[in-house]
Amino acid sequence: MRDNPLVLHVLGARPNFVKAAPVVKGLADLGVKQGIVHTGQHYDALMSDVFFADLGLPEPIANLGVGSGSHARQTAALLTGLEEVVLEHSPSLVVVYGDVNSTLAAILVCAKLHVPTAHVEAGLRSFDRGMPEEVNRVVTDALSDLLFATSPEALSHLADEGVDPARVHLVGNPMIDSLFAALPKLDPAPVRERLGVSGRYAVATLHRPANVDAPEAARELVEAVLGVAEQVPVIVPLHPRGRQRLAEAGLVDRRNLKIVDPLGYVDFLSLVRGAALVVTDSGGVQEETTMLGVPCLTVRPNTERPITVTHGTNRLVTPAGLAAAAEKALADGAATPSGELPPLWDGAAGPRIARVISAWLAGDNLSPAARGRVDHPPFP
Known about the structure:
The protein is α/β, with parallel strands linked by helices. The chain has helices spanning about 15-30, 50-55, 70-90, 100-115, 130-145, 150-160, 175-180, 190-195, 210, 215-230, 245-250, 265-275, 285-290, 305-310, 320-330, 350-360, and strands at about 5-10, 35-40, 60-65, 95, 115-120, 145-150, 170, 200-205, 235, 255-260, 275-280, 295-300, 315.
């Protein structure tokens, strides 16, 4: 084992920060030296910088500022920037999160440089290779040394793909850790007052390429959201991605439809906590609404998080079926998760991941073939 090994966390987008915070804290509690690399994939301060304050994350040791662009241009910039950072800092382990382009780029860089990696949120699959995120998930899991799964079905997916089970650890969901930690601060009233919202309302978050990139798809989605707005006021914290396309399709301020800038972590979850309904195409929001007991309609034909449907408050809908589904959800009122909550979604995923990483670092002299085989302490 190298003296004073360094763990680097590569973060690029809102969900990465939320998932990383409990892991960073867990490793800090164990005295592990670490640093954060902010790729700048989400370059809007309200989509990234505010999350460092809201989640108590330390300042990054590097900010690549790659910004937006096509998948090829963005990934190329990430590859170049991350290679320089990894070569400069020589980490013992690089931890990546989720399924964004920053995740893919970090895994590719480390694979070429023979730097070990860990993937938090491994094994999620939508089985839709038309989603860029699905391609990122599959490649990331194939190249990772340690794979941290958030739900049982992820274990089956990884086994089907031939991943050595000794590299895989079911640890629960660190995004839920962050949610539990934030609960005492989640008060809808101040956010509603600031936004001028009274009474029942819905929240919508929309940015997936399949929904917003093609003009026809964007128009269909906007018409569906307007159908919801005929029933209840809808607040849309608008992601920078697809903003212009959605505006061109008619997603602009009007009666019962309020477009706002992206919100910080605490403000956004406070707004969601007080909502009668959430409409989304985001993965993380499906999980957050499951835990908050808020009805969620996901405008996608599939989800890599089916546990939010079987154990939670989530339902998949088409744009054409959104208005009717919203009417039913609003009539039914507050949702409750279906059966027991997902296993290990108990607010302790971060410490579990930290213990596995710490044990793995202690066996850093293992050969690459044996990496991931270190026994970790039993889960509580």
